[in-house]
Amino acid sequence: MSIRGPRPAALSPAGMVPGSVAAAGGAARLVHRWLAGFAVLLLGPLLARLFLVESAPVWDQLTDITGLFALAAMVCTVVLMCRLRALSRAAGITALTTMHRALGVLTAGSVLLHIAVVIAADRNNLLLLTWVQAPPRARAATAASIALAGVIALGVLRHRVRRDYELWRWAHLVLGIAAIALSALHVWLISDLVRDAAMRWVLVALAVVLTAGLAHRALSARRSSEHVVREVRHDSDSVCTLVLDPRSAPLKFAPGQFAWLRLAKAGGEEHPFTIASSAAGGGCEFTVRSTGDFGTVLRNLPPGTPVWIDGPYGSCSLDLLPQPASGTAMIAAGVGITPMLSMLRTLADRRDPRPLLLVRGAREPGELLFREELAHLGHRLDLTVVEVVRQPPPGWSGARGDIGPALLATVLPPRQLRGSLDYFICGGPRFVDDIAHNLRELAVPEHRIHTEQF
Prior knowledge:
By secondary structure, the protein is α/β, with parallel strands linked by helices. The protein is built from 13 helices and 13 strands. The strands form two sheets. Strands 1, 8, 9, 10, 11, 12 and 13 form a seven-stranded mixed β-sheet that branches. The protein has a six-stranded antiparallel β-sheet with strand order 5-4-7-2-3-6. Strand 12 (about 420-425), helix 13 and strand 13 form a beta-alpha-beta unit. Mean pLDDT is about 85; it is low at about 1-10 and about 10-25.
C-alpha cells in the first residue's frame, strides 16, 4: 500500500471554504423550488381535469387522467435534461440523470396504463391498435408509443454504447421529441380536451414549458465560451489533458464540476468532461480518455484550435456542500481521478489546511496517473494518498485487488469519527455503487457521500 502523508486516523477539524455553507444552503432551497415546480407540472393537469371540467362517466375521466399524466410526465422527462445550469449545480448531474430515468419509466408505465384503461372502457377499442382500421388519432398514439418504446430501449442499451455515443444521443433525442410531438397530435385529434376552455389553457401551459426548455437547450450553444488550445499533454497511451486559454473571460467553475466540449460554435458533436484544473488558478484543463472517436480527435488537436465550452454543470464539489465536514476522503478509479485533481489543485492554491485522504485504484501501476504531481501536492496539503492495483507486477509493495470494505476500514478513521469527513466517489457506475454501499456499511452517514458517475 502506497501511503504519502500522515495516517488517516490523524484527521482533525480544520477550516471551511468561506461562504460555502450559505451558497450550498441556497442550492438546497433551489432544489426544493424546482421539485415543487415539477410536482405542479406533473399533477396540475390531473387536478385541472378533475375540478375544472364538467363531470363525465368514470371511464372517460380515467382515460383523460391517465393520458394527461403520461403527457405531463413526458414533458417533465425532457425538461429535466435541458441543461438547466442552476438546477444541475444544485442537485448534481447524477441525481438529475437518475430522476430522468425514473421519469422515463413512469412515462412508459403511464402510457401502458392509459392503453389498458381505454381497452377496459370498451373492448372494441382493441381495433384502435390495428394500424389499417384505426382512425388518425389512434395512429398518432400508436406511433408515439413505438417512439417511446425506442427511447426506453436505447436507455436500457446505453451502458453498451462506447464508440457510437453520438449516434445514440441523437437517436435518443429524435425519438423522444417524436414521442412528444405524436402524443400532442393525438390529443389535438381527439379534440375533447382542446375544446374545453380550462383544459385548453392547461395544454398551452404544457406546450410553453416544453418549448421554453427546448429553446433553453438549443440556445446553450450561444452561451458557450470560446477557448483555444494551448497544448495537449499525453499523460498515457489512452489519456490526454487538453489545456485551453479563454478568448475573453476565464471560465468560472467549482472544483469537480464538468462541461460539454464542442469543436464548432453551434451544432456538431459534443461530449461532457470533468474540468481538471484548479478553480483558483484561472486556467482550464480537461483530462480525457482518448479511446473513442471524439477523444482521438481531441488528442491530436494542434495549438490554436478553437474549442467551445458549455458549462459548468454538476454539484460534486467541495464548494457546493450544504454543511462541509472538517476533512475529506476521495475515492476514485481510473480517469475518475479528474474531479479529485481539480479539488486538490484548488485546495492547494487556497492553502487549505483541512486533512485529505485520496484512495485511488487502477489495473496496473502504469494507469496511476499524476503520481508525481500528487507527491508535490502532498507537500502543499495535509494529504494522504493510498494506491490500490488489481494486477500488480512483481515487487509491488502496495495494496492489491479492489477497493473493498476491508481496505476502506483500514485507511478510514475509527468508526465513531467517520461522520466527520465528506466522501467523494468517482468512476464507473458499478464502482460508484459498490463504494457507496461499502461506506454505508462502514457507518458513514448518507449525507456525507457524494458521487459522480462516468
